[in-house]
Amino acid sequence: MVSTECDLAVIGGGPAGSSAALYGARAGLKTVIFEPGLPGGQIAQTDIVDNYPGLPDISGFELGSALYQHALDAGVDQVQHFVDALHRKPDGSFLLNIGSDEVSARAIVCALGAKARKAGFTGEDTFTGRGVSYCATCDGMFYRGKLVYVIGGGKAACDEALFLSRIASRVIMLVRRDQFRAPKGIVNKIQATANIDVRFNTLVDSLAGDALPTTIVLKNVLTQQLTEERHNPGSFGVFVFTGFDPVAGLVNEYVDRADDGGVITKEDMSTKTPGLFCAGDMRVKPLRQVVTAVSDGAIAATSAYNYLALI
Ligand SMILES: Cc1cc2nc3c(=O)[nH]c(=O)nc-3n(C[C@H](O)[C@H](O)[C@H](O)COP(=O)(O)OP(=O)(O)OC[C@H]3O[C@@H](n4cnc5c(N)ncnc54)[C@H](O)[C@@H]3O)c2cc1C
Known about the structure:
The protein is α/β, with parallel strands linked by helices. The chain folds into two domains: 5-115 and 244-310, 3-Layer(bba) Sandwich (FAD/NAD(P)-binding domain), CATH 3.50.50.60; 118-240, 3-Layer(bba) Sandwich (FAD/NAD(P)-binding domain). Helices cover 24% and strands 29% of the residues. It is built from seven helices and 19 strands. It is elongated, with a radius of gyration of 21 Å. The protein binds flavin-adenine dinucleotide (FAD). The site of flavin-adenine dinucleotide (FAD) has 35 residues, from helix 1 and helix 7. GO terms for molecular function: thioredoxin-disulfide reductase (NADPH) activity. InterPro entries: FAD/NAD-bd_sf, FAD/NAD-binding_dom, Ferredoxin-NADP_redctase_2. This is FAD-dependent oxidoreductase.
């Protein structure tokens, strides 16, 4: 453990947390960032990021690592551990439980991000990690020369289908609606890719097999017709990209949440609890991207600095 007391505790080492930590340290706050996994958050899972302004051709891993490293270079201490619990003390400061250790912080920027939503078909949990995946960059290589089904019709699903089309022999996209919900440029690329087939109005009903899946049952949502497709064990995979749910359980009692689970903040990232700021994908916002996450983080840390200057 690096320190038992700090001015600013930043929980989460994705783009929002990294940016908040950088701004906190540069404002002179003794800042600690808590991240149990690989630095960079969700973006580290993706192949090429081509929409971050000024960096047209950077991998997600490079971008996520660079954001995190920039914070460390600015003097931020890191704790590579999950924050298990957060409590507000009577004096208004906070106590973080990290395993059997405790850390006190005068202010918090919470940047817990979001996690992949399940598609909800029978067998999804059983075969997660054994035929069902939520990350093409992480697991795509297991399907070199094989068949993959991609569930989803949004931008992330299209991006990942294009990535998988360069590895797999064939990609079948299953889109619940009758059209994509993705920018036209990406849809055009999907349509121009010879080994991607698209089936609209279709979802996965179930996946079955023994150690590995062998049978996928598809459902046409218009006719309710079920179609069974059988494959050899290990010859195909199912990638789910149906959206993300904000991660906010850690701060549930200290914030208000919207219907989609996102934390409600003011424009300065403050919550209903003084000294607790939330940033990035975990909060209610119209666009969950790296560019908005880093912006949120910078605002949150600046607001934390202003808050600490007044108390
Ligand atoms: C496959 C994929 C492709 C994407 N492509 C793009 C793209 O091309 N362009 C783009 O702009 N955006 C893209 N995004 C979205 C982008 O990655 C997110 O908007 C961004 O990462 C959000 O940053 P964040 O810091 O809010 O959250 P996250 O990146 O989710 O980071 C949150 C971090 O908090 C940590 N954490 C959670 N709970 C705790 C806890 N209790 N204690 C300590 N740490 C905790 C997690 O380990 C995680 O590292 C993509 C996302 C995915 C999944």
